[in-house]
Amino acid sequence: MTAARPPEPAPEPLSEHLTPLIPAFLKDYSQGKLVLDFTTLRLQQRRATNPTTYLGKGLLEVVTDGEFKLRLYVESSEHHEHPFVKLAREFNETKPGDLIPDERYFVMSGRDINGFEWRCAKVQADAHDAGHGIVITGVLQDALKHEMVGLPYMASARAAMYFFSELRVALGLLGAQQATTTFSAAGFDCSAKQAAPEDGGFVMLLRSQEAEMPTAIETRIEEALRYVTASSVNWCMVEKRFGTIREVMVVPRRPVHKSFFNEPVDYRHPNMKPHYWHLFARYLEHVLAADEPDAYHPLSSQLFHVFSGETRQLDLNGLVVGVAVEGVLNVSFSDIGKPTSEFLAAREALAQRVAKVKCKVPELDRRVKGALDAMKSSAASATDKLKALETAGVVTRLSIKQWKDLRNKTAHAKGTYDPTALAKLYPLCNAVYTLLNRLVFQAIGYEGEFQDFSQRGWPNASFKPVSDGTEVGD
């Protein structure tokens, strides 16, 4: 682990000037009472040709732990067909089990009573006619966004992220209050604090050393937090200020669930705080290289269900963590453990000899040839990858055996319920989770302390990534 650099001063909170995220906005959102009144509101169908458009006034209710509900009082329509008739007809055209066609959704745009322009790229709408006017209600299926351009140029990009949750993060203590923690990660000066619920709950402020802001930085921060907290954390509000642009995004508040597994680095231990944020930084640096801005990095996708599941059932968690090991091997270690050219040549020679043998048992003949066909691929199996990583010193032979045992116990049903057998899965699940963490550490290049859940008492242990020529891919 590199020497810790002196702490940077905490980034200044973003100015309230020209931003909708003022304290009253945050408070109303946290209490589930936020209502945006729109003086002008527009819904336009997501159709390339002849899209239907509805215009009027309306409101948007931002419901805590729920949905963003839209209401539009139609004053005019850029379509000859009655809104109620049209939407009812399209609704009836979709049968149970069908996916809703993209053209059935609408793009929302409008101006609220404070003069802020808002937009949502995907709204599911329905029409109502009570005889005294058309009302269209809708549910937002994408983030609510506000953007302002032409602001004074900023050479240092900034972002503020509000999570409206109490997260299991390593923060310094000041009396009975949790103080702000500052650190550096991926070219950002960062500060994290656990604020009051009405002020955003957990808040993270970022200041870049560059003028540009990485695309979807909020998603990458979320991915890194999900890993270090071992929870289903999701951002709720983001404000980004870069160049001459201010962007604000708001999504419904979603409950954060602690996963079955504990944090890779103990957030409660004061001596582990530098390692905790170093792990966060290394993970963030790794996932910032994601190719698709609107999706999780492939590594995070393999870990998603490990930290999103709410079940405490041992066999299900064992199955999830066992599958995650294989997923991480496939996306982050795609180039290791491949069969050698000598092996492939020998397999081909053997296959030719077997083809000449007349087997009297068809089932045996099919199985032998099937096994040889499976060896044609130049890609390595999960077991081959783990053996290569064992040779490199990343994992141990025991941990590979534990992974195989867990996969066999959880993936192959026995037809009986045995509480004693299930109880034995607990240490096995934790051992394989430790194997998974070591693979992640190697993939992201993390060097530092971690909790070794494969050992009794879960002691802290050290990890240092190997660099013996082993290829680590994305």
Would you kindly provide a written description of the structure presented here, covering whatever features stand out?
The chain is built from eleven helices and 17 strands. It folds into four domains: 23-142; 151-291, no CATH class; 311-338 and 379-474, no CATH class; 344-378, no CATH class. It has a seven-stranded antiparallel sheet, with helices on one face. It has a six-stranded antiparallel β-barrel with strand order 1-2-3-6-5-4. It has a two-stranded antiparallel sheet with strand order 9-10. It is globular, with a radius of gyration of 27 Å. By secondary structure, it is an alpha+beta fold.
- Tell me the series of helices and strands, N- to C-terminal: HEEEHEEEEEEEEEEHEEHHHHHHHHEE
Roughly how many Å apart are the termini?
22 Å
Total separate domains: 4
Low-confidence stretches: 1-10, 469-474
Structural class: alpha+beta
Give a count of the beta strands, DSSP E runs of length 2 or more. Answer: 17
